[in-house]
Each structure stands twice: as C-alpha cells, then as structure tokens.
Amino acid sequence: MEINTHSKSLVKKFRDVRARSEEICRPLEIEDYVVQPIVDVSPPKWHLGHTTWFFETFILVPNFPLYEVFDPQYNFVFNSYYETIGARVIRTHRGNLSRPSVSDVYRYRKYVDEKMNEFLDSHYMKDAIAPLLELGLNHEQQHQELLITDIKYILGHNPLFPAYKKDSMQAEKAVKEKRMLRFSEGIYEIGFDGLGFCFDNEMTKHKVYLNDFAISSQLVTNGEYLEFMEAGGYSDFRYWHADGWNWVKENNALSPLYWHKIDGTWMYYSLGGLQEVDLNEELCHVNFYEASAYAAWKAMRLPTEQEWEAASSAFSWGKRWEWTNSAYLPYPDFKKEPGAVGEYNGKFMVNQMVLRGASVATPPGHSRNTYRNFFQPDLKWQFTGIRLAK
Amino acid sequence: MEINTHSKSLVKKFRDVRARSEEICRPLEIEDYVVQPIVDVSPPKWHLGHTTWFFETFILVPNFPLYEVFDPQYNFVFNSYYETIGARVIRTHRGNLSRPSVSDVYRYRKYVDEKMNEFLDSHYMKDAIAPLLELGLNHEQQHQELLITDIKYILGHNPLFPAYKKDSMQAEKAVKEKRMLRFSEGIYEIGFDGLGFCFDNEMTKHKVYLNDFAISSQLVTNGEYLEFMEAGGYSDFRYWHADGWNWVKENNALSPLYWHKIDGTWMYYSLGGLQEVDLNEELCHVNFYEASAYAAWKAMRLPTEQEWEAASSAFSWGKRWEWTNSAYLPYPDFKKEPGAVGEYNGKFMVNQMVLRGASVATPPGHSRNTYRNFFQPDLKWQFTGIRLAK
Amino acid sequence: MEINTHSKSLVKKFRDVRARSEEICRPLEIEDYVVQPIVDVSPPKWHLGHTTWFFETFILVPNFPLYEVFDPQYNFVFNSYYETIGARVIRTHRGNLSRPSVSDVYRYRKYVDEKMNEFLDSHYMKDAIAPLLELGLNHEQQHQELLITDIKYILGHNPLFPAYKKDSMQAEKAVKEKRMLRFSEGIYEIGFDGLGFCFDNEMTKHKVYLNDFAISSQLVTNGEYLEFMEAGGYSDFRYWHADGWNWVKENNALSPLYWHKIDGTWMYYSLGGLQEVDLNEELCHVNFYEASAYAAWKAMRLPTEQEWEAASSAFSWGKRWEWTNSAYLPYPDFKKEPGAVGEYNGKFMVNQMVLRGASVATPPGHSRNTYRNFFQPDLKWQFTGIRLAK
Amino acid sequence: MEINTHSKSLVKKFRDVRARSEEICRPLEIEDYVVQPIVDVSPPKWHLGHTTWFFETFILVPNFPLYEVFDPQYNFVFNSYYETIGARVIRTHRGNLSRPSVSDVYRYRKYVDEKMNEFLDSHYMKDAIAPLLELGLNHEQQHQELLITDIKYILGHNPLFPAYKKDSMQAEKAVKEKRMLRFSEGIYEIGFDGLGFCFDNEMTKHKVYLNDFAISSQLVTNGEYLEFMEAGGYSDFRYWHADGWNWVKENNALSPLYWHKIDGTWMYYSLGGLQEVDLNEELCHVNFYEASAYAAWKAMRLPTEQEWEAASSAFSWGKRWEWTNSAYLPYPDFKKEPGAVGEYNGKFMVNQMVLRGASVATPPGHSRNTYRNFFQPDLKWQFTGIRLAK
C-alpha cells in the first residue's frame, strides 16, 4: 500500500539521518560539544538537542497522544529562533550552558528516537504528517553541515590545532581544464518543480530573462587566490564594496579563514590538522566581500543565482558553496507557511546573499541545483568558494 | 553651434542648481549648519562645501590651468567617501568641525562658482567634460534632497521643535480612489535608454520576465498605517523580517520617525513645525522593515523595482520614495567607471534596498522612472513611503 | 634542621592546597569545567591549569634543571595577565577552548605535582625559593575561592539551576544582637607585621589617624536589604553614586545577584540549588554601588579599610567579603617586586575598591585581618556583604 | 551695615564673574559655540546657558516672586546631571542642539542677569541665600575653566588648527632649580577651615598621619617627559597600571594630548595655534595613567593629596592641575547636602582621582590649597601636569 511504503522509506530515512548526526560527533571530546567561540557557531551538543527538539515539538507533541515531553525545560534550551514557541527565564547564551550534559543530550535523542519509531509504526502517523517529517529530516541535514563547519571552527581556533579526523574529507584534486561556458540570452526556468522534498524558498518554478553570459567550468583555486593576495588585493580599496572595505579594515583581513602564515609558509587548518596550503585545491572559506573583490581584480564578476542554476548542468559542483551576486529574496509566488514552521526561511529574506551548489560538508542526498543557501556577506566559516562569470 | 548651445544650457543649469542649494539653506540659523545628530545626517555646511569640492576637484583642477585651489586643507574636510583622493591628518567627524565657518564655506562657493563661470566660457571647456559636469550637477541635486532631509532631522530632533518654513511643502491632499492596477506576465524592458543624463546604475536597458502582478494606484496613508500600529503591528514578530524584529526590539520602535504621542494625540514634526498627524496624508518616514511588516499585515507585499518601473506610467508618483523588495544590485551590463568617479554607485551594491520614484524633497527635474535610489533597510529619515503590490 | 622542618611543612601545605582545588571540582560534570559565561568568570579547568602553570613557570623551570615542560603550548593557554611571559598565536577567549581537555589538565596537574615533590625533596630546593612557593600556594588558594564563585555563577545562570552540592556551606544562622561598636579618635597601626605569609599589598605596617567612628557588630541581613528594595531603593537616584545610578539603569538592576522573584516569592540560587530567600541570613552578592546605596538609605556609610582593620578584633568576620569605602591604593612604603611576580598586585591599584574580611568560600587558613581583597565597584559574583559604619 | 556690605561685594562679584564667561567666548565664531567633539567636552553655548540656568533655577525661581522663567523648555536643554530637576522629551546630546541659538543664549544671560541685579537689590535677597549665590559663582568659575579647556579641544581637533588668541596665556618660563623638599613623619591637618567659600568636599578639616616624604619643588617639563617617550615608555607595560596599559593599547597612545609629530618635529597645539614643543615648559595634558607611568619610570611616585596639601606652602603651584595618587573619596565628616545642590560633589566619589593645585585656565581667585579637583584616570583635556614624590 502506498502509505506504508512511503512510511517505511521515511522510517529508514529517519534512522539514517539521526544516526549520521551522532556519527559526525564521534571523534569529539566531551569538552568540544560545549563551547561557542562566536555567535554564528553553535556548540555541537546544541545542534544535537535542537534537531531532536524539532521532532518532539512539531511531530510528537501535536500528533502522538501517548507522548510525554522528556524535560519541559529543554524548550528554553534547544529552541532556536522560533519566536512562536516559548519564552525564557534567564537570558543566556548557548555557549554558557554546561547543562544539560552531553550524556543528557544523548539520552534525550535516544528517548525521542524511540518514541518516533513507535509513532511512525502507529496509526497516529498520517500521510499529512509526512511533509513535516521530511522538513525535520532536511532540517537535521542542514544542521549536519553546520555541525561540521562549527566543529572545524572550534578546533581550528584552538591554539593546539587538534585534528578532527586524520583522513577527513580528502577530496580528489584532479586538475581539470578551466574554460568559460557560454549561454545565450533568453527565457530560462528557475525553481523547483519536481517530486520529492524542497524548501519553500525554492518555489515556485518561474521564468526569468537572462542576457548572454559566460561562467567558469571550474572553481577558483588556492593558488589563484594567492596571486590576488600577493598582488595587494587586501590593500586596494578599488576592488571592494564600501562595506567590504570597512570589513577589511576593521578586521585587518589578510587571507581566507584558517590560513596562517607561519615562518613564511602559508598553512591551512583542515579537519585533518594544520597543513601546508595546497595551491591546486579549490579555495575555501572566503566571504562574499572577498569573492567579489577577487572577481573585480580579475575584471570579471560573480554569477547571479539564476545564471548559476541555468548553467548548472554544464559543470560539476558540490565541493564549495558558491557565492552568487544575488541577494536572498522571495521568488515571485513565494508563500510563507502559517505558524512556527513558516519562520523557517521567509523571515531571513533581507541582508543576506545567496550561495548555490553544496560542499564537502553537505550530507549525501541533501543537494539540488535549485537549493538556495544564504548567509550574511561577511561570514566565511562555511565551506565557501568562488566561480567566476562575465 | 551645437557645442555652444549645449554649453549655454549647461551654464544656466549650473547657475540654477548652485543657487538652489543656497536657497534651501536660507531659513537656517548659522548654528543649524554645524551639527550632525547621527552619522547618516551631515551638517548643512558640509553639503554646501562637499558639492563645491566636487567641481573643484573633478572639473577645475584637472581641466583649468588657471585655477588655484581655494584652500588645500578643504580636501580633508569636504571629501566624502572617495578613497582615491587624499588622506587625513586628524581623524574627525563632520559634526565636530566648527571651522571652516559658514561664511568661509559661502566664500568657497562664491570663489568656485566664479572660476567655474570663467572656465565654462573658456576654450578649456571641452565637450568631453560635459558628462562630468552633468554628473556634478546631479550630484548636487542629490545633496539638495539630503539637505532637506538632514535639516528636518536636525530641527525635528531639537526639543524646541523649531519650524524650517511655516508654509513648507504643503502638498495637496486630494483623496483619490485607490485600486489595484493589474499587469500581465511577460517580458518587460527596464533601465535607461533615452537622451540626457542618467546615473551609471540605471544602465543598460535590458529585458526582464515578470509574472502577473497588481500594484496599488495610491500610496499608503497615515490613517492606514495607524490601523497597523493600533492593531499591535509593532509587537507581533510574525509580520517582520528577523532583522526587522531585532531592529524593533533594540530601538523600542513604535511609530514612524517624527511621530510623537503627546497627551494622547499623535503629533508629527513637519518642516512647518509640530502638528497633528493628518490621517489622509501619504505616510512618510518608515524604513524597509516597517514597509515590509505593514505589507505582511495587509497580506500583500512590496513591489520589485522591475514591477514598479514597468507599471510606473499607470500611477502618479513623486511624493515619497517608495521602498521596493529589490536589493540594490548591478544591472546585467553594469560597468563601473575607472577612477574616483567610479566609486559613485557600484561600491554600494550590497546590503541596501532600492527605492523608486521621488519625493517632495527631490529637486525639480531630478526624477525619472528609471532612477534607482538606495538605502540600508533600517533608515527612515528620507521622505519614504509604501505602495503595495501582490 | 630549620630548613628541613620548614620544607616539610611546605611540602605538606603544597599537597593539601593542591588536593583541595581538585576536591572543590569533584561535584562537577566535565561540561561544567569548560564554559565562561562572563569575562570575569573563568572556566574551572582554566583555574586548575593556571595555578599549575604558576608552579611550572616560576618554580620548576628556573630552579629545577631536570624539569621538562609538560607542553610548551600551555604557556599560551594558562598564562593569565602576566605581560612578561609569552605571546599568543591565536587571539582567543578562555571560554572558547575545548582543549586541552579536562583529563589533559588533570594529567598536567599530576605531572607538575610529581615533579614538585621531587624538587622539594631535592637539593635544588633552597630557602630563598620558599617565599615564592608560599606565594604560589596563596595564589592557588585565591583561585580556590574563585573556583567556588565561578562554579556558582556557571550553575546559577543555567536555566536548569543544577545544585553543586546539596549540603554545601550551610552556615549556622544564629541571630545575634546587633549594636554599634565605638572607637575613639587617634593614631592606629595598619598593615601586616607578623610572621608568616602576607601579600605585598599588606605592607608595610604604618600609622593612620582616625576620627571617632562606630561600626556595626553584625552584617546586614537579607531581610534588612529587602526593606531597602521594597522602599524603592533601586528607583531613587538620591542614594546612589552617579556611576552607580548609571549601572542601575543600564542593567535594570532590581536585586542582589542570584535573586529571582518567582510567582511572587523571592528565591535565591545557593550552591545547594534554588531556595527561598532566608531573611535572617547575611546578605550576599551585592556590589559596591548597592552597598553604598543601602548605607545612604540608612543614613550611614561604609567603613574605610583602616577603620575596619582597627575595629576587626571587636566583631566576628569571615562570612562575607565586606565592601569598604576605600579605593585600592598602595600603602606608604609599598614596593612593587621586580619581574613578573611584581605584576601580582601593584598594577591593579586604580579603579577598584577594597573588601575586607573573608567569605564562606575562602579556604581555611587563608584569611587575616590585614588581607586586602579588591574588585571593581560593579562586580558582585563574589560572596560580598555589607557592614555599616558612621 | 554688615549685610549690605556683604551684598554689595556679592553684587560686584556676580557682575565680574558673569562678565568673564562672556569675555572668554569673545574670540569665538558662532560655529565654535555649537559642537561637541567628545562626550566630556560641552559646547561653549551650553556652558553659557547652563551656568545661567543655575541662577534661574536655584536662586530666582524659589526666592524671587516677581520672576518669570525665560523659557520653560530651557530646563531640558541646560540641566546637566541634576537628576532632581526635570525630565526629557527627546533623548538628545548637547552637540546636536543647534537651537537655542547663540544669540538666544546671550539674550537668556542678559535677562537673568538683569533679574538677578533686581533681586540682589531687593528685600527678597536674604543672608541665608548668600551661600547658594557663592556656590553659583564658584560653579560658574569652574565652568570658565571648562570653557577654556573645551574651546581648546574643539579648535585643537580641527584640521585647520585655528588659533584662539595669538597671545593667549604665554606663561613666563623661568627655569628654576629643581629639588626634593622633605617632610617629616607626623600628624598633619587637612581640609578647609577658613573664612570665605569652599566646596563641601573640602570639609571638614581633620588630622591625618603621614610618613616621611619628599616632593619635588618643580613640575615635570616637556623635555623630561620626552625622554620617557624616547626611552620607549609607551611600549613597556611594566610602568603602567593594568587599566593604563589597556588604555595605551586601545588608543594607540604615544604622546600627551595636542602633540603631533610633523616632519620629524614634535608640534603642540596651544591656544595660540600650532607651535613647536617647548622643552622647558611644564608638561601639560597627560592623564593619570601617563602621570603614574612616568613616575614609575623615574622610580618615584605621585604624591597623595594629603602630602600635596601638607607641602603646598613650600612650592609654587597653579600652572597645572597636578595628578595625585589619591582616589576621590569623602573626608571623615563629609556631609552631603539635601536636595539637588547635594548632587554637586558627593555622588562622584568613586572611580575618579584627585588633582590638586590650579591651572593657567583657572579663574583668578578660584584656587585654594584645599581645593579638590577630580577626573577619571583616562582624561587629559584639562591642563594637567606631574609633580613627583617619593
């Protein structure tokens, strides 16, 4: 029967996704779960609790009469930006919370997972709930990527530079031919219109008119970016947005994140530890201002998100989130869902730039060429890179 | 001869524009020329000096061999954001500078105007210089609007609420029928392609594909916005962007700028002084967050700048700068000019939203339906308003 | 032989003091060792490492040729404010450091303790080193008090309000008669002049001339302070220093630290957990501004540190650090030691107020009536209280 | 008759003091009256209005039934820190207020002066009011010194470096023999106990016990301080308080205020304009941190305020406010006056350091060897200097 099949595949997906979050955290010490070095980075235990809280709050509590909340205080602790749910007793900061302990959080996950399994096998699980379950799983996959970027930030800003995993995510570095792929002026269709899950911000599919454009078949490499650095790119305001130039001066910016010049050699903190910068590797950890300045120095530009999507089948992507020159704004027929779930995307549609593609930290099966990632233009702790256009 | 005619009309335009800046300042006390209450507002004497410095620096110095700089120190004082020109001895703040005095600034204007008149009559004035002169005049017209908005801010934030002019800019308030104007899906052409002056950011004319949309024939009135306020619009996060909601809370925002509830009555500081809010007048002095929240409360939205431009011949505009839901980004074939003049527009193309139309403070002859104004989403000291779309 | 005896008692003191720091941390979860909620509070593992680093850096490295540094990186991590020693690779924040892990820190302690024991038994241990060893032990005792106050802050600012120990530090609350003890005008002698250890800031003993004064035999209780709160003390600027009043307004201050009004009842977070405020208990966790305002409301004042010391044998003290109205300044013959050890006290002699006595968190044997504690006037996470004078 | 005589001399003093404030402002342009470059500096027109408001509010309104307030709004504008009086409509900043205009302020002064003259001649003027009038005049004299220091700051931070007066305050620079004056241990009497006016903070006269001390007969000169600068004083933390060292680093401090190294020469902005630093002149415009660091570098110290007062008849003083190593605290029998006048001094008795003496900017007749000036330790826009002790 259709529903059962669907349900079974969902049950399997639920188990896989939930297990992968814990798998990502396996190399951590307990202490690594707790700290929050900057406001954008969350403690790993918070990610583990928050993704669990999502299933408890949005699936179990409203739909499973047998469910008892694990701990009513956890709503304050693991709620993120959902203004609809709850208030706070003590104004605090995720990185100040030593409790609940890591083992409490794992007990919380175990409890909710067991109840979810009971629920998914029960008659309370209705077809109408499936989309919300899908959302919860995609939500957890987004946090899996954040888990990796945040763990990297925590370990990479420790003066001992501990490795996460010695062999972590060594991508093949086949040097490929770089060329400009050309596309002709005309109407293109943009947005999601297939089967399966997508976020609300990818809808609805709509027509756009694009001018002639060209886009690179390859991402910018460390070696290419180093030329920009050595040519004085960080000290010449002409390549920068006004806000970008202010960012350079206020932060005394000189290089991508995780680059350290030690005894005359550029070193890079990867999840495997500190190592020499590999000039042939795709550049990583630049922000929008740096990506734009690099493009300006090359007398080129970043693609728009529409150009990127229209061209995406012509190049390989997925190693870096690629900055576009598109602000994060609603598609023509975008509709915000009512209630707390509607806070998911729409309320961020100002002051952020779109990134397209996926990265080495993105969970398998969690990428699409219509996927719209978005961050403020000064952030660079995600696995971000540059693809040029003109 | 073509050139002479052109030149004559430019000479006349030069005199008119320059005179109008001083005309705007006539009602001021000397003290009003000096202060800078917030970083976005400049002292009026700075506007008068800065617009003069533009002609001195970009027209006279490079093109008129007979010219002697009025005071070499003025480059530090009246330079604005042009990173290419000059450095600073003392880091200071426009609102801290009591000198040059107001009479010094008027002497500076007089000196540069006389030299400009000599120059424009001389053989040094070449056709190739005309576009830069046009830019200088349009630049001064932009500062004329800022002069009015900044004077309003300075006087409107003084506890004595002094009037600027008793009869200033009383617009006719004919209550007109409001209706939604409908436009059909298809390709539209956007951008400037006529004769005469435009800014670089309006070019080049290009095709866009728009979905069906509807746009209001009228601006939102004070009375309509008051309904939103009284319905609790400022205390319900659901209508706000996340950044907008933070802005509301940090600033304890409760009303448009210049509104004061005194003894139970909403009062408004206009350039004529403090007066009761006129419910039929077009709403003024809201920021992008407020405009968006109002639209969300009405279950509508702001138009994009492309929709606005495509529809603009179907409604009357010009009383308020109208917030659009478009981020300020380059048009497909936008080219940044080389040198300091190229810093004019392109470097601001991040983190700002586009406003379309013009306002009661815009100089006559300085508006076009392709004009792209832009400000950060939290600013509201310009004469800004709301036109709804869906 | 004199030296051996001395050395033996030092060896015993070394073991006792070092063991007590670990004893204090026994009730903690690993996560509790890591966080830093405010800049004044350090993570417990940092205290454990820093006190160890002191012995390594100032005793073992310069005096014990057989010693090998445990980990050269630890100098960056566990150095505190000693400008003389080392520089930093990465600018960081104690609360961001998940590594070294808690077990690493305990291994570090064990290693240094073993080497110290070897050293103390060896011929390298000279008499001349004893004072520095004494300083190291007193330094660790100071950090033992900070361990308790910081643990309280970490747990007391967690929305789960976990208890540290259920029976922790329940002081006897004998209600005693309160009266004003009177002292006559004249010359008194102030400062340390005995045998045994004292800090450099307690020297040298010197004469002061005091007017007639009276000082309370008892500390202010919670009940007495609650009267001040209920009489509107926090909303009447007349009782406050100008800086204190700014502090009240900026922090919206309404009560001592750790007080929470829940369902109409004043609750207090003690190390045993959240409990009702005990009106007969000595008030705790007020800052200098609050202490001064309370005194002003009672039409009295705080004692000076000279009055406190002169009168100290006439009352019992030791439950609360008692704010005085004396700024932390050098005694007439104060001499700053050369080198890093000289940074211990003298460089803080500005912008801080003196507290006298000791508290329930002070290690046994670590108090004297000449002891000068000092903190900025806005801080109140120490176990601070009020004794009135006039 | 006694009262009349007293009254007549007060009338004369009133006229003289009031005239002198306007005399100080005579060289100013209108624009100079308006700006406020930093929070510690007030616009000159504010000083003129505020001192006038004092007489209106504390003398005329409560005592002269015939008096009509000049403008009730001025209470918001010219009130300073008196929490007792008034509230605010608009939160603003003195440097943002272009109105009341300078001519309005002079009209206000003229109006109040006329009414004061009427009042002083009337039977409403009672003996009991004389102390408050004295306070008002001394208050205005304090603001006369601030007028000079604030005008210097305004003009000295303008890139045009305009002179205030070409011949302003050129003190004789007789190089005198410098020696250490010695004083013996014992009881000294400190505080005001004479006839005539003093501030409440100078009372009451009381005994202190001082150790042997020595104090320099001369102030430190520019040349001596330059040696400290050239010896690397600003880059060696050992000479600085911890807070002082933070101040150095945050402000990148390298020299006294108003010193500019131009083409290799140290220049100094005096009220006569920019000129070369005179090595024999008494050092001016250092803060407490700099004064302390200089003393530490000389292996000496700053005197306490008690030492200074005890020794003051043995040296000449009055050119610089001399930093002491005494925190600003109440004398043993200090009593705060009730009401707004009581806010004058007592509420500042925390977080500030005492300066003794007077300066070239102090009004004639406004200095005493018991006078206690006080400022935060990081401020240096007053005419401050250094006298060493040991």
UniProtKB/TrEMBL annotation, chains A, B, C, D:
UniProt keyword terms in alphabetical order: Iron, Oxidoreductase
NCBIfam families hit by this protein: egtB_TIGR03440
Sulfatase-modifying factor enzyme-like domain: residues covered: 180-327
GO BP of this protein: ergothioneine biosynthetic process
All residue ranges annotated as the DinB-like domain in the record: 14-145
This protein's pathway: Amino-acid biosynthesis; ergothioneine biosynthesis
Record bears the keyword Transferase: no
Protein name: Ergothioneine biosynthesis protein EgtB
InterPro entries tied to this protein: CTDL_fold (IPR016187), DinB-like (IPR024775), EgtB (IPR017806), Sulfatase_Mod_Factor_Kinase (IPR051043), SUMF_dom (IPR005532), SUMF_sf (IPR042095)
Pfam family name, one: DinB_2
